[in-house]
UniProtKB/TrEMBL annotation:
This is DUF4194 domain-containing protein. It holds the Pfam family MksE. InterPro entries: MksE.
């Protein structure tokens, strides 16, 4: 009985806030909004949100094997296709600097796997490793000067802080505690990986292979 009451409350109270977040173009995952994420995992809440979105030609889309939720179009007319095309071009224009950043973080952190949702990045430790390795410093300088980040700084401290600030603004990272230099990867990265795979499959760009090659170059 208690569980039923809680579920109903979740449906009634949580749906409006979730709908607003989705319509703003935000991604809901365990990291960005655990309460909203749990609500969308609840069939009753998800159906309520979906019913409302369908009325305005929207639908709940997901990535990362159903662990990340965002808003998509239910049907694509000419106007919707223009919006989707514009959004896709925007993502594609950011792919190279984002992939290079992911490769740098993976290399400098000594990780075997790419950054994924929930993974912490301790900026102070990462910065120290980059400063101690000229190749990493060069990588950071190059990617920080892409238009996506737009850094004009000539030192690692200024470059890396601007890059991470921008990634928080873009929704790929979150900084739970303003007093600590610890960032958490969000589920939007899983969406990015799916976009990369889609482009690989349809355009033959082999972005993942390029990233893997870059990851291995320090071993050659």
């Amino acid at each position: 009985m208690t569980s039923d009451v809680y579920d109903n409350d979740t449906v009634l109270v949580g749906a409006g806030a979730i709908i607003e977040q989705l319509l703003r173009g935000e991604f809901i995952c365990r990291v960005t909004n655990e309460e909203g994420w749990r609500a969308l995992k609840n069939n009753s809440t998800r159906e309520r949100v979906e019913t409302y979105l369908n009325q305005i030609n929207r639908t709940i889309a997901s990535a990362g094997e159903g662990e990340v939720f965002f808003c998509g179009y239910l049907q694509l007319g000419e106007a919707e296709r223009k919006v989707v095309s514009s959004q896709f071009k925007e993502i594609c224009s950011a792919l190279i600097p984002l992939v290079e950043w992911l490769v740098l973080v993976q290399e400098a952190s000594g990780q075997d796997a790419p950054l994924s949702e929930g993974a912490p990045i301790r900026l102070t430790e990462l910065q120290a490793r980059i400063e101690d390795t000229p190749a990493f410093s060069e990588q950071l300088t190059k990617l920080s000067h892409y238009r996506l980040f737009g850094s004009s700084s000539n030192n690692v401290d200024g470059q890396i802080k601007l890059v991470f600030k921008r990634l928080v603004e873009l929704g790929y990272l979150t900084k739970p505690n303003a007093e600590k230099q610890i960032y958490i990867a969000t589920g939007k990265l899983d969406y990015l990986y799916e976009v990369i795979r889609f482009i690989d499959e349809t355009e033959g760009l082999s972005l993942e292979a390029q990233a893997e090659t870059a990851t291995q170059r320090e071993l050659i």
